[in-house]
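Repro case for the chain-ordering regression, as requested:
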Amino acid sequence: MRNRPLAIANGSAVPFGDIPQFETSIFLETILDATAHSWNVSAYFGMPDRDETTLLCVLTRHTEGVIWVVGAKTREASFPSIAAICPQVQLFEREIAEQCGLKFNRHPWFKPLRFHPSLVPGRDAWGRKSGEQPPVGVMDYFQVTGDEIHEVAVGPVHAGIIEPGHFRFQCHGEEVFHLEISLGYQHRGIESLLQGGPHPATLRQIEAIAGDTTTGHAVAYCMVMEALSGIRVPPRGEVLRGIALELERLANHAGDLGAIAGDVGYLPTSSFCGRIRGDFLNMTAALCGSRFGRGMLIPGGTRFDLTEGERDDLLARLAEARVDLAGAVNLLWDTPSVMGRLEGVGHVPLQTALELGLVGPAARASGIKRDIRNDFPYGIYRMTNIPVASAFHGDVCARTMIRWQEAQKSMDFVEEQLRQMPAGNHAAKEPCSVSEGKIAVAMTEGWRGEICHVAVTDASGKFSRYKVVDPSFHNWPGLAMALREQQISDFPLCNKSFNLSYCGFDL
Amino acid sequence: MTDTIIHLLAVIIVPPLLMGVIVKTKAAFAGRAGAPCFQLYYDLFKLMRKGTVFSETTTWVFRAGPVVTLAAVLVASLLVPLGRHAAPISFSGDLVFFVYLLGLARFFTAIAALDTGSSFEGMGAAREVTFSCFAEPALFFAFITLARLSNSLTLSRILTHVTPDVWLAAGASMLLLVGAIFIILLAENCRIPFDDPNTHLELTMIHEVMVLDHSGPAFAMILYGAAVKLFVLGALFVNIAFPFSTGNSILDWGIFIAAMLGLAVAIGVVESVMARIRIVRIPQLLVGATILSAFAMLLMLR
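-- result from build under test --
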């Protein structure tokens, strides 16, 4: 048995047998030691078998760009929890408990996550009957008691057209003491569907993990498939993928900048950005025919090429959108009442962001310089560098500012890539043939942050486990912490500054 | 007699148009076509034809809320002179009556909200009542100043007493008053920067959240009541800010309606160029308004 974790590169596959299987104590010590030294838990999941559970943890360190994979096996019905000392794994442990029926001892928030029956019949961490669908959202919420304390329950049905989620606020007057978020209303069993794949429908299912991050998840899946089958994507394909990813980021950042303005009641930016988001979506549609990038990618490259004329058209539209977006967004910084509303609200300190393992713009707004495109480069990002924008205030204003800075960098990138498109094919010729007994890890930077896909194949080249970690999974606790000691009336604004995915979390 | 009839017609017909003009102005700033100016009339007709759903946990208080609120605001509208014409009802001390009619309307909106037992509506009611505590003194100080100017305690007298000559004689004081009353106008009518009438976010609402449970004709009454309230306070503002009279009754009515539409445009502009302030800052702004009108009074008494 090796006593060192296995270091692998982003978007690569290794034989599953090479993953070191540690004893429980060494496994947990490795995680604790790593997270104490600014490593992130990018994925932590279980693979339940008949009488034992294999736990796998993907640890990443962005400063060196190293990915570690460690494993452990347990035959027990319970496992020690480290959530109390390592908050990063808090949700992961609950997820493992719910999926594998493994009870975590001394977990401070040991409650179901998505309210689905255990994947292993007859094994349930909460002793619920097998085969029954547990009622979603029914659990013991944390309660504050005392004079003048009141509880406000919001959702799962909301006044706006947003996804369902339940929020419990413990308030003292207008001040929020604690916010507990309970999701699971959109659980579709994506990971179960992916098991036994790749099926013809697998890519469609991956694209539907979070509708606004279609390209982000699809790129991660394609990287997994390419790693498992050893196909190389031609340069033109990588460039087209990069453009699709950045257009997705642009559309969402533009939309969110408008939505943040809308939440503070600032009309001009709100209206303009709503339209400009549509312009970016239409550019994606020009690439592949779908405004959300559905069907753009295939393992080995992209399904569609870009002709010379289409490229010039995109460049012209991008230049126009850049002027419009700059005009609309700069209004925000020039309006004192807007800045007064954004500054100092929903503050997430650097320490909290590190402990919770936040990812994406939310982490960068708190001062963590972490961006998968830069730290674990993949695809076209290996050839070119997108500067990482970061702030240090960690408030709504910082998160808004980061969005705008990233949008500018993305526009530069798309323009540059469109101007220097490499010639050649846009997709590899050879078909995908998945190799057996491997594990592949792929990480991409979706617009919300780090997306991590881990696939394990069995002896016949089918997925015995396909793990998806959406950035929202890391960031929902960040939103809860941002609300501490804030005004309850600021919740919608904080929520919008994170704009997390419900279905990406629920899977 | 003609003036009374025109007064009644104006109060009944014009208010929803003001709302429409505000929306249109905001749309113009946002680069959109916007809803038609008469949209609120269509909405009111639509709601009047609908059924109403009452929660089983509510009592008669909930049903009385919209009725009392609308009635109180309509009566208040009879006390304010429009277009330099004396109001249909006026008596000594009616300015106190006026303020408390608005208070009664607010009280019933708030208590109807509390009657639902919803945590949102409770929060909204708490906010509304808290903020009106800060808004009321500003209005009273303004009335005291005007009463002192005109040596009268009837709204008709003190408001029609303001003329361009008064502005020339006590300009500083009047300017402070106009500022204070404009702030009260925005706060009392739940406009930006105090409240966002368009938001769908329950947790940030003040006034809107209190009426979430109302539907159909009851909700129509609330919307109409809100429009009338904007009209009444707007008329108050216009009387002080544009004290021009031609002596021709019909022409004065025309000037008044034009001034009201101009005020609606001004509100639309304010809403377009600034964001809502943080809820904790609202009392500060309202205290600012109180200080403005108190200072106006000091200048007058000096």
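Ordering looks correct now. Residues 119-150 of chain B form the longest helix (32 residues).
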